[in-house]
Design brief:
five-stranded parallel β-sheet, alpha/beta, 8 helices, globular
């Protein structure tokens, strides 16, 4: 028996294969940030297999194919996810990390990709808004669909002025629950997949947002193939259902307001 299988067997009992999920005892919100994309297809297949809708946060990051996540080559992938009913937010176009707030109201940032990769920049709130909007514009070009007014800062790092800039731009920031940190960025030598699975299954509770990536360059033993399937199955057998952040009580009203404004 593999380590993952052993964890699964220890945490939830075998159930009769009825083909029916138990009644919902709570909702878990799966979210995926772009990354190396090494696990992108596997994650999509797994979500489809379980009829689960998730939320994707997009940045234009370098992939294992040598291109970038918002290049035209990825249009079919994103179009397919739109057709499946997933939700989508902005992760800043160049995966821009905030450094600090400045006294004059501007923000010091450092893009990971793009023309100024690795260089500290000083931006106004309007410039940061433009960075959030770049993802929305590219997403529209690639898929014909509109981005949801959701935003996740790279690393989840915020400052007061950055949060205010996002709000002024019309975006609700989405972090993740403490138990929702998948650990897929951690070194697999110290944090093996069996341990990460065990922690998630024990700690996740109703309303928690889970954060993982579509692939991480640094982790030697990738998280998704080993953990995602048993995690979903284990949560389902505990009675949890899954939804996009469009249904999350903290974001639903704001997102519906934006949709109404567009319709009008």
């Amino acid at each position: 028996m593999s380590a993952i299988a052993a964890v699964a067997a220890a945490i939830w009992p075998a159930q009769a294969a009825t083909g029916e999920n138990p009644s919902c005892k709570g909702t878990i919100y799966l979210s995926f940030d772009t990354g190396s994309q090494s696990q992108a297809e596997f994650i999509a297949r797994t979500l489809n297999k379980h009829h689960i809708k998730a939320t994707f946060f997009l940045a234009n990051e370098k992939t294992v194919n040598g291109d970038y996540t918002l290049d035209p080559a990825w249009a079919p992938y994103w179009k397919a996810r739109v057709a499946e009913g997933h939700a989508f937010g902005t992760h800043t176009f160049d995966h821009v990390y905030v450094q600090r707030d400045l006294p004059d109201g501007r923000i010091e940032v450092k893009p990971q990709f793009g023309a100024h990769a690795g260089q500290k920049q000083v931006w106004s709130p309007a410039q940061y808004c433009g960075e959030l909007q770049r993802v929305a514009e590219r997403f529209k070009e690639l898929t014909g669909a509109s981005l949801d007014h959701l935003w996740r800062a790279p690393g989840g790092k915020l400052t007061p002025q950055l949060l205010a800039a996002g709000r002024a731009c019309g975006y609700s920031h989405v972090a993740w629950a403490e138990a929702g940190f998948s650990g897929d960025e951690l070194p697999s030598e110290k944090w093996p997949n069996a341990m990460l699975l065990q922690q998630s299954l024990r700690k996740l509770k109703d309303g928690d947002i889970v954060m993982a990536h579509l692939g991480i360059w640094s982790r030697k033993d990738p998280w998704a193939p080993a953990v995602l399937e048993p995690l979903i199955s284990g949560l389902e057998q505990k009675g949890f259902c899954f939804a996009t952040l469009r249904e999350h009580p903290a974001y639903k009203a704001a997102l519906e307001k934006h949709q109404t404004a567009v319709i009008k």
